[in-house]
Amino acid sequence: MSETIALETSLTTDMVVAIADGAQLVLSQPARLRIKNSRAIVDALVDRGIRGYGINTGVGALCDVIIDREDQAALSRNLLFSHSCGVGELLGRVETRAIMAAQIANFAHGYSGIRLEVVEALVTLLNNDMLPVIPSRGSVGYLTHGAAIGLVLIGSGECRHDGQLIPGAEALAALGLKPLVLQTKEGLSLVNGTPCATGLSALAVTRLAQLLDWADAAAAMTYENLGAQADPFAEMPLALRKSDGLQQVGRNLRKLLSGSALLAEAAGKRTQDPLSLRAVPHVHGAVRDALSQVRAVVDRELASVTDNPAVSGSPADPQVHSQAHAVGAALGLAMDSLATAAAELAAISERRVDRLVNPLVSGLPAFLASGSGVESGFMIIQYTAAALVAENRRLAMPASLDGGITSALQEDILTHATPAAGKALAILDNLETVLAIELAAAAQAYDLQPSGAGRAMATEKLYQWVRRDVGFYRDDQPLNAVIRKIQDMLKSTAAWSESEAT
């Protein structure tokens, strides 16, 4: 039975990721009451003729055009069709569920003015894995993703379920729902806010956290194969550098390498190891520190109202606030930071791969090949890692600085939070591949070690994990197939669940 998460006040990053992976979401009674109260406020605003952006006015540069009451529902419907202009590949199941979870959480704060039945319909779609089809590209902020979701609610658009594409009206009918007739402001609320960027950002945070543990594990295996500095990760000298992330990596490396006969045999043969080996705590630790800061930003975003306008007060005293809460500047900057950090983690991993395959520095057979000359071994897969690291450098250019002008100068600064999250996820895909290459190369290096000294208990378990899925490589199959098997392990397994020393 899948986990059930009750939405009380707000969701956290971990909750969004759990829902993205299949957990059920239920609205608490307080959340339901907040949503109902906010709708009553919108109705009061309409009844009193109080001007509110997107309530009784147009949107964007049309914000000063007054919309008569009889046309306000048509505005909500039309917004979904006109804003459904996303292009490119479709988002996957996990990404779609993460966005929907963040969207529902935003409405549940009780400042959007959307009806409870609209939010309940979103929850029903989510919990039944009847997921709106969302094109991944074409949004400078959030509009196109939200519109694709909203179309399904009114019986248009498409859903994906069990690998099948289903027209929106049929998808609703399969769940016992009828197409909704949107009311005042609901179309705007459905396309507004930062849920698409927030949902994708939550996924990026969790993916990097898991890959960081695997990066430490891969680095420990590589260091055991190549390192020669005596006690390089000792606690006291590392403590001189003030960084929580650095200290965590130091603890991880000490645990992973504890009792290594290979390192004991090599200790002291080199005064200083190369930076790609010696600076693992400093580089990996800096990435951990950056990740901690990014997670805090995403959690704050989930706890925030990101709709515009927001409504407050009571039906007796309705208030509407035209702020810029839908601007995702914080998320854009955070995802740019995460992207750069992940790119650097891939870069140092690739440098370690190069040292493993390079006979000029490794002390191992050239390119970890079992037959010199006849077999190329890991020569070209290091090229692959280098290519992915170069691609990461291009992708790591900050999206939040792209700027741009839309809506006839009304929206004259753009922060590109959703594209920033999207390219961060692309960098994480490349990081995962590079780490898989390092793990494969490190396992191969163990098998080619001229020394008969034993590995540490923890790295022995990591080696066995790799060898469970892939054997010693003899140019007997495409290496990309080998790497894919290790990537599957990285996706499905936590680095410390069974591999750490006890």
Brief account:
InterPro entries: Aromatic_Lyase (IPR001106), Fumarase/histidase_N (IPR024083), L-Aspartase-like (IPR008948). The protein has helices spanning 13-20, 29-48, 69-83, 93-108, 116-127, 143-153, 168-174, 186-191, 195-226, 235-238, 244-257, 261-266, 275-278, 280-302, 329-357, 359-362, 379-395, 417-447, 457-469, 479-492, and strands at 4-7, 24-27, 87-90, 131-132, 135-137, 158-161, 164-167, 310-314, 317-321. It is mainly alpha-helical.
Q: Which key features would you list for this structure?
A:
57% helix; disordered C terminus; mainly alpha; two-stranded parallel ribbon; Fumarase C, Chain B, domain 1; Fumarase C, Chain A, domain 2; Aromatic_Lyase; 3-stranded antiparallel beta sheet; plasmid; Histidine ammonia-lyase
Note the total helix count.
20
**Whole-angstrom Rg:** 26 Å
CATH fold category name of the largest domain:
Fumarase C, Chain A, domain 2
Largest sheet: 3 strands, antiparallel
Number of domains: 2
Described by the principal axes of the CA atoms, the overall outline is elongated
Biggest sheet strand order reads 4-6-7
Provide structural commentary.
The chain is built from 20 helices and 9 strands. The chain is elongated, with a radius of gyration of 26 Å. Helix 9 (195-226) packs parallel to helix 18 (417-447), helix 11 crosses helix 14 (280-302) and helix 17 (379-395) runs antiparallel to helix 18 (417-447). It has 502 residues and is mainly α. It folds into 2 domains: 4-194, Fumarase/aspartase (N-terminal domain) (Fumarase C, Chain B, domain 1, Orthogonal Bundle), CATH 1.10.275.10; 201-305 and 327-346 and 364-492, Fumarase/aspartase (Central domain) (Fumarase C, Chain A, domain 2, Up-down Bundle), CATH 1.20.200. Mean pLDDT is 92; it is low at 498-502.
